[in-house]
Amino acid sequence: MKFRFILFSAISLLLFSCNNGKLTSDAAGNFEAVETVVSAEANGKILAFAVTEGEILTPGQVIGYIDSTQLYLTKLQLMQSRKAILTGRPDIKTQLESLEKELANAISDRNRIQNLVKGEVASQKQLDDANTRVEVLKARIDAQKSILSTSTNTLTEQGGTVEVQLAQVEDQLRKCRIVNPVAGTVISKYVEPFEMTVQGRPLYKIADLGNLYIRIYVSETQLSQIKVGQKVEVLIDSDKKDFKKYEGTISWISSKAEFTPKIIQTKEERVTLVYAVKVLVKNDGYLKIGMPGEVNFVK
Fold it and tell me: Among 19, 139, 192, 230, which is most buried by a count of CB atoms within 10 Å?
């Protein structure tokens, strides 16, 4: 009964204010803000969460942490795996060094035998054998280079795969930090430290209270009188006989008509088609979300 009496008194006051001839507004509505619900990006226990309702936060501000112990251990394991893989890559230069020395000696012997053949001291068969030995060593070196290069590339690719896994873990570790994304005032807090959370669970709601919007509805005849960027006069109740005035700017006009919302019009007027309009108002601290206001289109 008490609630009904208060509601009836509020409606009676609104009707009296609209009909007493002191002020005729072009439109009326309620103030709202751009609200952002910040959710958890990781699973685990919330180890720290330094947020209070009414607190002003800045973008990039770290306000809490989610337990990341297992992720950190996984990171260490992957780092060791990468190290072991890359350490196993062969040293191609060292492994080919002995064969290249043997080839150099074989070439030297062939050149010596070639000179002896010219002096008819050595036979052609000895020179042919020397040439064969040089070619065989060259083929062995080429084959060994191919094997070692393939092994190196394989291990490098495996190390690259671990690098990608490390990057994924690093990203998950970053998401264990609760970082505020936008500037604004905390208007709702949903969790406390040491609670368990999951990815996507809302943690708090933040809103830019420095700039509020008043959503109003205009008729088709009023639509031709307004445009985006237009300056308008916004009024709120200051006391029983006066109004406080603000300068507002029309920031958005709906492109689609809709029926008048039930909460602000009589049954007969709800069948009227109207257009939603948002008016941006700089908040001096007196404007609140949900507060009623009125708008006059400045001529």
Answer: 230
Q: How many residues does the chain have?
A: 299
Q: Which of 296, 279, 167, 161 is nearest to 222 (CA)?
A: 296
What ranges make up the beta strands (E) of 168-230? 177-179, 184-189, 196-197, 202-207, 211-218
**C-beta neighbour count of 29 within 10 angstroms:** 21
Question: Under CATH, what is the fold of the domain 19-34+208-297?
Answer: Elongation Factor Tu (Ef-tu); domain 3 (2.40.30)
Tokens coding 157: 């690719």
Query: What is the rounded CA–CA span in Å between residue 47 and residue 65?
Result: 6
Domain edges within the chain: 19-34+208-297, 38-67+176-204, 69-174
Strand 27-32 to strand 258-259: parallel, antiparallel, or no bridges (unpaired)? unpaired
Strands of the sheet containing 177-179, edge to edge, are 177-179, 62-66, 44-49, 196-197
- Number of CB atoms found within 10 A of residue 124's CB: 9
pLDDT in tens, 12-71: 334 334 444 444 688 999 999 999 999 999 999 999 999 999 999 999 999 999 999 999
Domain 38-67+176-204 has CATH 1.20.1250.20: no
Token pair 């709906």 is found at 254
Residue 212's DSSP bridge partners are: 281
- How much is the pLDDT for 264? 53
pTM value? 0.69
- Predicted confidence at residue 273, as pLDDT, reads 85
What's the token pair of residue 19? 């009909």
Q: How far is CA 232 from CA 14, 247, 252, 281, 295, in A?
A: 22, 6, 13, 10, 7
Compute the distance between CA of residue 75 and CA of residue 79 in angstroms, rounded to an integer. 6
What confidence tier does 113 reach under pLDDT thresholds 50, 70, 90? confident
In this structure, are residues 213 and 33 in contact, taking their beta carbons and an 8 Å threshold? Answer: yes
